[in-house]
């Protein structure tokens, strides 16, 4: 079975451990299977839907996100990494798909709804932002992706894309491929931030980044939210909701040792500094090689941009083929 897989990220900041466990690791695993054809897109057009006034923020993060991709082991000889804005066919497909979706349907998208609230857009929501799920359907269908690995918050985008595929194929001809969402395994989807307040995110300032130095990682772990009632080492402590143990469960490999640490912590007599030191070692085992690869690639940004340029050229060829089929199905390929 051949799979075409498409996924991507908005380039609004560097990627953190939440991205790593929630999606980047899965991509690297998928890439290793030669029957998978993996596309990873830097969604700058989508990022611009709520950053129109500061395009430099979006533009400057393209290299950062690409460095994060290469650092975790995405390999340009196996995976097509590309920039959304360099594929004009996506914009064309978006125009055609908009005619198949009602305003009422777009308004019902719960993720967009809550983003509009969070960003306090109200009636001032940019039209491009409002319809980005339609553009995302174009991202996915341009490559005839059958699998789309994303976070739980992207479920409504997948449903919208599936509806568009169904409507297009029923209205015109069977050209588009039904995309299936692939969601993170339980517990991997929502890594909380180091402060224990909601999920790790740039806006909350509670993240550990793949680009963070060992020194910064150490400081962040040392400031992690544990059990506020665990004041003296001898006090019994709480493991649930204690970020150090939450992270050990996600990143640790020595399950027995972690179980013993939890029991000791619950009994009392185990200090926060000890468990934090252990977590630093656990995280560094994972992060040190990633950081080293990132620094290596960062020495040659032209090379990284060339990887994206080659990826974008390859991606455009595929999208152009789909667009041509789409136009033929619609009967508007006038000169063919
Ligand atoms: N909306 C996705 C996010 O915010 C990014 C994205 C854009 C995407 N286009 C996509 C993800 C297509 C999967 C497929 O994370």
UniProtKB/TrEMBL annotation:
List keywords of the entry alphabetically: Aminoacyl-tRNA synthetase, ATP-binding, Ligase, Nucleotide-binding, Protein biosynthesis
Enzyme Commission code = 6.1.1.2
For whether the record's keyword set contains Protein biosynthesis, the answer is: yes
| Coiled coil feature spans | none
Gene3D superfamilies assigned to the protein according to its UniProt record, in alphabetical order? HUPs, Tyrosyl-Transfer RNA Synthetase
Database matches in CDD domains? TrpRS_core
Indicate whether ATP-binding appears among the record's keywords.
yes
GO molecular function: any one?
ligase activity
Protein family: Belongs to the class-I aminoacyl-tRNA synthetase family.
NCBIfam families under this entry?
trpS
Q: Which PANTHER family match?
A: TRYPTOPHAN--TRNA LIGASE, MITOCHONDRIAL
Q: What is this protein called?
A: Tryptophan--tRNA ligase
| Lineage of the organism | Bacteria, Bacillati, Bacillota, Bacilli, Lactobacillales
